[in-house]
Amino acid sequence: QLAQRQTDAVDMTDPLRQMQMIQRQMNQMFDDSFYSRLNGMPAGFAMPEADLKTEANRYVIRMELPDMTKDSISIEAKDRALTISGKQSALTKKKGDSFYHEEQSVGQFVKTMILPDDASVDNAQARYDKGVLEIKIGRQAGVKVGGGTKKITVN
């Protein structure tokens, strides 16, 4: 990006070059500032990352989901797909001598990941504590895929 900026600064007399630079800046601004709002998420709420750890007899998935409640998180497994979704809302109130402002923002996320072939969700467990969701999924050779959708309760 730095090399591109230096190239842009070299020839600002070319109108086409100016338009290309403005387009790149607009795209960057759009990506940085508005991506989360377009996905319906409150400002500052990014798509959560999931960490998958392999242990001897299970998989452990951890996600940081600050400021959520366990009731706002849903986990479902269908075939090899594990879908984690959540909904977050924020209420902002400001009151002054001559005004009252109240704003409600609601955001949600859906993250789907494909589980390894030996993952068995039959006895899967999920726990949400202090902003961290932890899902434990057993490992079992010869697991059969199918059987509909299984909902995993968050404790």
Describe this structure in words.
The chain has 155 residues and is α+β, with helices and mostly antiparallel strands. The protein is built from 2 helices and 8 strands. The strands form 2 sheets. A 4-stranded antiparallel β-sheet has the order 1-2-7-6, with no helix packed on it. The relative contact order is 0.18.
Tell me the number of helical segments per DSSP (H or I, 4 or more residues long). Answer: 2
Kindly provide the radius of gyration, computed on alpha-carbon positions and rounded to a whole number of angstroms: 22 Å
Oligomerization: single chain
Mean pLDDT: 80
Helix content: 10-25%
* Protein structure class: alpha+beta
Question: What characteristics describe this protein?
Answer:
about 160 residues, four-stranded antiparallel beta sheet, 8 strands, single chain, about 20% helix
Topology summary:
Blueprint: H1 2-10, H2 15-38, E1 50-54, E2 58-64, E3 73-78, E4 81-95, E5 100-114, E6 119-129, E7 132-139, E8 149-152
Antiparallel strand pairs: 1-2, 2-7, 3-4, 3-8, 4-5, 6-7
Task: Describe the structure concisely.
The protein is built from 2 helices and 8 strands; from the N terminus they run H-H-E-E-E-E-E-E-E-E. With 155 residues, the chain is an alpha+beta fold. The chain is flat, with a radius of gyration of 22 Å.
